[in-house]
Amino acid sequence: MMRRLPLLLLLVALSLGVHAEEKGYKIVRPDGSIEFTDQPAPGAQEIPLPRTPGYQAPPSRPLTPPVAPVAPKGPPYSQLAITAPVPEQTLQDGETSVTVHIALEPGLKLGHRMVVLLDGEVVSEGAGNSVVLSDLERGAHTVVAEVRDGAGNVVQTAAPVTFHVRQYSKFFQPQPQNGAPSAVGPAPMMPKAPRAP
User: Fold this and answer.
1) In what order do the strands lie in the sheet with 45-48?
2) pLDDT, averaged across the chain
3) Phi, psi angle pair for 44, to nearest 5°
């Protein structure tokens, strides 16, 4: 039992990585007992040990603080809408202008400006929430309101509104009846058929 104890201790030491020198020693005592050790001693027999791979811990990752979830960013304005003219509104005969009213909540922020486009062309740019469109040609028109930043980037856009302007053609003028202007002009004349010879 006494002979096995040093051997057991040597094996335990080897299993714990003490065997990094890859050498062991066998000592035979005068009483015949055998001791194994990793320390050289006079008269000890060197025992070559197989090289065993040691454990190398992987490099630790740097600790990063947890990132708080980012809430989705909404539009900067809770309301941006064209309130006048209303969609599909028709300007009757003689009306060639319309006032565009824009509802904006909250108010225009610093560095932002309101841009109004008529049929894709910028007709107004500034801080106002209303603009008068005049000299409108007959037909359908679409007005759009945008909020832009100082660099000209569109920050938010209102839903477009299409309205119509009704006018008589220059070739179909209303004729006065009893001194009052007629709402409807005369019917166009049919061409006369040629007479037979």
Assistant:
1) 34-37, 23-28, 45-48
2) 80
3) -80, 145
